[in-house]
Sequence to fold (554 residues):
Amino acid sequence: MAISPDAGRPADPAKLVNIPRLVTAYYTGRPDPQVPAQRVSFGTSGHRGSAFDYAFNEWHILAISQAICMYRKQRGIGGPLFIGMDTHALAEPAFASALEVLAANEVEVMIAKNGGYTPTPAISHAILNYNRGRTSGLADGIVITPSHNPPEDGGFKYNPPHGGPAESKITSFIQDKANEFLKSGLSGVRRLLFDQARRASTTHRHDFMGEYVRDLRNVLDLEAIRSAGLKLGVDPLGGAGVHYWHPIAERYGLNLTVVNETVDPTFRFMTLDWDGRIRMDPSSPYAMRGLIALKDKFDVAFACDTDHDRHGIVTKSTGLLRPNDYLAVCVHYLFTHRPAWGENVAVGKTVVSSSIIDRITSKLHRKLYEVPVGFKWFVEGLLGGRLGFAGEESAGSSFLCHDGTVWSTDKDGLIAALLSAEITAKTGRDPGEIYAGLARENGSPVYERIDAPATAEQRAVLAKMSAADITASELAGEKILNVLTTAPGDGNPIGGVKVIAENGCFAARPSGTEDIYKIYAESFRDLDHLRRIQIEAQTIVGQVIGAAGGRARA
Fold:
């Protein structure tokens, strides 16, 4: 992965996205359903793309919104639909398009009071609050966000009544129906004028912010943070939670400074990510350079991505914590500071997250629930109170309330960020210092993800690999102990393979959108050992792909 010489630098103003042209492209661009890249591709994270590429245009959103209305009717989902948006330029136009369709279909829609931005976790929390104790007339939601993607992108995702990311059978239904609408020239899509939709009797204002901020005391020890008098800093990265932080500080008496309150759809205030593009990624040392430079001004500082479902933690001791390191700290802290959680409450992680979490979980005498990549696999466990914490390697997590009940079934960057302050207040050490101690006790892993080229055919082979396809007996000089193609926690296919030795492992998964596969490698020895694992991982995977290609030619 080549690092751009511009990584970590401010963006060139001449290269910022032209917002008027982008919005014009949204309304005037007509996607061609015969072109695969211009069709609706609705996965767990919904549909994403840029209007410039005919991949996120008004027709997409009209079609998807009508498909969601059809799904709701088919499933008997008759409660309100909570809808929120982030600060990307295409969010407002997509919100208008969606509301036009939802109102025409007489869906009871809850929009943000005063037209504000709404973080993903606030939507999830609102759905769960509404549905608590109900068995019919359930609520669901839409979040308009492409997460931390570049400024020219738009995103549109659906959360069913469980409040979390939609499972595959739901996203497939929405995708297929939406593409049918595209092919028919939107025949069958119902729509009102936007002004009519806003004034419709089915459109209601909801105080997402007040509800979320009020309930935070149920999931965090905010009094401990206040009493400790910690000096906290937060950078919302221009995202949907930008106006949440002051009410949080005021309500709970926190000494919290919002270091940047700017909302600008070009995101010109960001430093460039590893590839020289603007990306609001709180786990990137390049995108986070501004907050990292302020680390000595705060006891602990943090940031969230554009829809505030991911987090980044900056400490005096360490600077920016790697996502896996902070997940390990969260597991260790929460399961020693939440006495109301039952003994059977487990730790949730993805198969590509660091194995230091496995070691910490074992010492805590807790069950480890390991799932494929994707937060949707944690939803039922969080909803039922069986998973105390669920985290994935890309800096997304959620955890239960103090009493062991569900808080959110989607990722929540705000509570993960504020937990770093609770940890510092209650232990007297910041998360970086705590992780250093955990590494001394459990080993200090070196972890890295790299990408390798693969054709569509090769990616298909990798996705269907079995343990029998792996003929190697050693990995970087150690005996291979286990080969996984299904997740140990739930038995679902991981869409690739994970190879485990005593002091190292790797997982290989194909990309769903690019001609690459991803290798997640980890060593509990050193960097040289990690490099050996990465090289051998590519060899092992290459042999499987090559053998499959040979059989196909034969």
